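Working notes for the structural subgroup meeting. M.R. asked for a predicted model of this chain before we commit to crystallization trials. I am recording the input and output together here so anyone reviewing the notebook later can reproduce the run.

Input as submitted:
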Amino acid sequence: MPDKKIIAVILTAYNEEKNLGNVLSEMSDSYVVYVVDDGSHDNTRQLATDYGSRVVSHPINLGQGLTALTGYKTAMLEGADIIVKMDADGQHSPAEIPKFIEKMEKTNSDIVVGSRILGTNYASAPFFRKTFLPVYTWLINKLTGYQMTDAMSGFRAFRASSLRRVAKVLDDMIEPQYMASEMFIRFAKAGLTVTEVPINMGERKTGTSYKGFIRYGWGVLRAILRTFLDKEFRNTKNS
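Returned structure, recorded in token form:
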């Protein structure tokens, strides 16, 4: 019988004590859960510890992108086979994680993205998601050759061996706060493959997002431009 795969789930959290418990209570005991605390001022760290999660903390707030990178690198160092990244605010459901694993095994893809557009509740999506997400996704697809419907989704799964093979890509990020666009551009050049599964977005139970739509939209475009203007990126050979 083959060895059981180690599935690491990365939860990025900043002041999420009122939402985190709901997410962790639904998490399967078969996953290794990492809560990467991004300099929270509330009880996020203690709550994560109480639920038995492995807690990695930033001493100050560095932003969601760098927090995700910390989680990826920690899970890789500790021997994960599959790394699933999701948010800690309750909008992503742990019950949907098996879909990512199944899709990865069936397609042998390096990355599986959770598509909100393919999900059944997309009809009620907010204005920004309906208006700008398809545009950004189209642009990233044109630049990478991928065929995604939702390039900005924060619910993703990675084959850890693939990330280890292109580990330098993670270190080369120049706009980690707006990492999705840059990540896919760099991963495409490194030869990683992508597929999608439909996901449904829940409502944040308490609090508000720290992303401003205008700021976030401009940040995504800036990340794309800076990546292509990066001399080292342009000089890197395709895998």
